[in-house]
Write a structure and sequence with these properties.
Shape: globular
Number of strands: 16
CATH superfamily of the largest domain: Vaccinia Virus protein VP39
Distance between the termini: 83 Å
CATH class of the largest domain: Alpha Beta
Largest sheet: 9 strands, mixed
Length: about 400
């Protein structure tokens, strides 16, 4: 591929993957364009969906859905949802019912045929549900800044025929990302994806996860269903277009899938579902569906509000994604930021929060050293001047209320 055919700022490796080898985007585009016109059962991993949300969907959308899980089950009313690789729109239309009329759902896909299928029933499904809260946008899920519909309109009136044209187009693409991004920074509550991340080329995956992190609001979460492998996939299998476009040879290893979320800055990474039996096995490598959830929001200063948490167990000790070690039954000192994180999913059910008798004024809070695992002295939380004495029976039983 010449530079003149690559005006949107793709790296050389992305424009033509390892010259002469598999072109991932082309293989995926061709496979899923065909799958939008006729059902391909081999692309599906057995998944059950709540039937109440399927009643409003045309059979065509149900038959041409190619997923491996149901991340929509982990949404809630009012969420703003982004579906990466939305395909024919099945998950988007399910999600629209889960989040309700106060919520919003945005599907992003690069395949014109799939987008056409998804938009085909948009008005009809909205009428059946009773509200319209779904839209579909054209873009590459590893580049959520560039609105490809807008960019294609520019190219239609400014065709790339010279190096100068290419430079101008690249500048326009950059300006669009900055001034009119497809998905703005911190605008999404939940990102879902159903068997799509494995279709992105290896060289684009760091950008893919960084883009997910960029568009999520603080406190937002990702819920991703994807195909993972129990062993590293060898290069000879990664070069097979049928295996790659079939959600197999591009699979993350299970450990890699989890650690990639952590590496980009997510916390509370957890496996929500893991398929027991392998969906496919090739040369002894097992491929199965896994649904993972992770959160954004551990950035920021660490300030000491004299707080602590007690880890309930059952493990003797656990370590969170920020490196804090919690020892079972011990009041471990935490900063205000970490306390807020522990007060919500996925930690809230596993710890007991402890607050000082007299709250710390935020402006007076000192810096907290999150690099050490310190046990908080109860005396520190009660205050050194606290010397109250109260014994059972000191007036509490006068009205017969507590004995």
């Amino acid at each position: 591929m010449s530079d003149l055919a690559n005006p949107i700022g793709l790296s050389e490796s992305n424009a033509n993957i390892n010259r002469g080898k598999l072109n991932v985007e082309q293989a995926v585009r061709e496979r899923y364009s065909a799958a939008s016109k006729a059902a391909q059962p081999s692309l599906c991993c057995p998944t059950s969906y709540d039937s109440q949300y399927l009643d409003v969907l045309p059979d065509e959308l149900i038959e041409r859905d190619y997923g491996c899980g149901d991340p929509s089950r982990f949404l809630k009313d009012g969420d703003t949802v982004l579906d990466l690789g939305s395909g024919g729109g099945k998950i988007c239309y399910i999600a629209s019912q889960v989040v309700g009329s106060s919520g919003r759902v945005i599907g992003v896909d690069m395949n014109d045929d799939m987008l056409c299928l998804a938009r085909k029933y948009q008005g009809e499904i909205g009428e059946r549900i009773g509200y319209h809260n779904v839209e579909f946008r054209k873009g590459r899920i590893q580049d959520l800044g560039l609105d490809m519909d807008e960019f294609e309109q520019y190219l239609a009136s400014h065709p790339v025929e010279s190096a100068d044209d290419w430079l101008k187009a690249t500048q326009v693409a950059g300006r669009m990302r900055e001034e009119q991004p497809l998905i703005p920074d911190e605008s999404i509550d939940v990102i879902v994806s159903n068997c799509v991340l494995n279709l992105v080329g290896l060289e684009n995956r760091e950008q893919l996860f960084s883009e997910m992190f960029r568009v999520l609001r603080r406190g937002g979460r990702v819920v991703i269903s994807d195909i993972v492998s129990d062993e590293e996939v060898p290069e000879r299998l990664r070069d097979d277009p049928q295996l790659w476009s079939g959600c197999i040879s591009g699979a993350f290893t299970e450990h890699e899938f989890l650690s990639t979320f952590q590496n980009v800055g997510f916390y509370g990474v957890e496996i929500l579902e893991r398929q027991e039996q392998a969906w496919a096995t090739i040369e002894g490598i097992e491929f199965r569906s896994m649904t993972v959830r992770a959160f954004k929001g551990k950035e920021g200063p660490c300030l000491d509000h004299k707080q602590a948490v007690i880890y309930k167990g059952p493990w003797k000790a656990v370590v969170d994604d920020d490196g804090h070690t919690l020892f079972r039954g011990r009041p471990m000192a935490v900063c205000e930021k970490t306390m807020q994180i522990y007060s919500n999913a996925p930690y809230v059910e596993h710890v007991i929060p402890l607050h000082p008798r007299v709250p710390v004024v935020p402006e007076a809070a000192a810096e907290f050293d999150c690099e050490t695992d310190a046990v908080r002295n109860f005396k520190e939380m009660k205050g050194v001047a606290f010397d109250k004495t109260s014994l059972p029976g000191d007036g509490c039983c006068d009205d017969g209320g507590c004995c």
